[in-house]
Amino acid sequence: MDKLNIRKSEEMWDEALDLVPGGVLGIRRPYNFVPGEYPLFLTRGKAGHVWDVDGNEYIDLLCAYGPIIIGHREEEIDEAVTEQMKKGFCFNLCQPWQNKLAKKMRELIPCAEQSFFVKTGSDATTSAVRIARGFTKRTKILRCGYHGWHDWCSEVHGGIPEAAYKDTLEFKYNDLSSLEKLLDGNKGDVAAIIITPVGHPLAKPVEVPKDGFLEGVRSLADKHKAVLVFDEIRTGFRVSLGGAGLRFGVEPDIALFGKAMANGYPIAAVCGKRNIMKVLADAEVFISSTFFPNSMEMVAALKTIEILERERVCDQIWERGLVFQSELSAVVEASGAHASFSGIPPMPYITFDSDPEKKYKERRKLFFTQAIRRGLFMQPYHHSYIAFRHTDEDLKRAIEIIRDSLDIVAKEIP
Ligand SMILES: Cc1ncc(COP(=O)(O)O)c(C=O)c1O
What we know:
By secondary structure, the protein is an alpha/beta fold. Helices cover 39% and strands 14% of the residues. It folds into 2 domains: 7-72 and 312-412, Aspartate Aminotransferase, domain 1 (Alpha-Beta Complex); 75-310, Type I PLP-dependent aspartate aminotransferase-like (Major domain) (Aspartate Aminotransferase, domain 2). It contains 12 helices and 13 strands.
């Protein structure tokens, strides 16, 4: 299969490098894909597909890194937002949508006695950390997973005083003893344990919670009187309407939602127990931003959630994801490409098994090159997502592309 024509993308990229440091910030830089093979600018999307500036069309299995839960340009949501735009959405005071959305969160999410709304996942995780510190009057944070770009948790340390990291300690997913050790070593100092309920380390297989793991985290948090925070920024409104916590039967004290909750509009939510959120009510802890009360994204969230409920979107994605997962696992298994399938039904991932000669890197590059050339947009270092508007035809085609691409890997890098 020939290389894609991405000439316009490349011209725009040269311009971007001059105008924007690094061309674009963070994880959308070319080295996160396959440089020279992937497009660099997209122009439009519809349902489960996206188009680049050169006119190439792709089945989109990355879903904007998670926000697209229903599909691109979902008219019902866009129309609701447009109606609000006509009335205005950025005012001196809060608009009634706040209460409606907080009520909805309370209805759906077990720990959401109270909620407030911010813009990004990083806003939400940082808010939770501040609330937990204010509530417990302790400083240490035990964390497990990616929680965004702010000082307390950024994985790249440049520009951040080392002191910012000294109170944030990492434990291993699915390893209760690593958490217990940190709790024992920091007795009386731990304000919060923050964890993604599903493990999704960069470029490594997705990890499903082992039996008893999340329950164990809950009981250790109780024993040490630390606030338990579930970072549901990826899993929320995807794994289930009440979050992965609800699906796996473990209730945190604070749960954080973002990405999928408004099908692409920028909003995130901090939901928690009233007695903990009280530090905000009492103004002991300060959280505020000019744009937090804007209503456009609240309208989008309410309409998205309405569709998620009405169409049983999470259940349907789970059911279709299960079929996709079983077909894909069989394809991966049969391929002989030294690949592995991991994930949960809404979040599938193909990784290449590490080997001493590091051929897995070449295999990964070849696989994702072949897939993008055939019109399947995935990310080599990040799991995929299934959206509601991915049709059976899209998923069938995705499996064919993955099979063909793995066959080439098996042949060329045995
Ligand atoms: C689990 C998790 N938490 C927090 C964040 C940060 O969210 P944002 O990029 O919206 O700031 C992310 C982003 O990928 C995430 O996956």
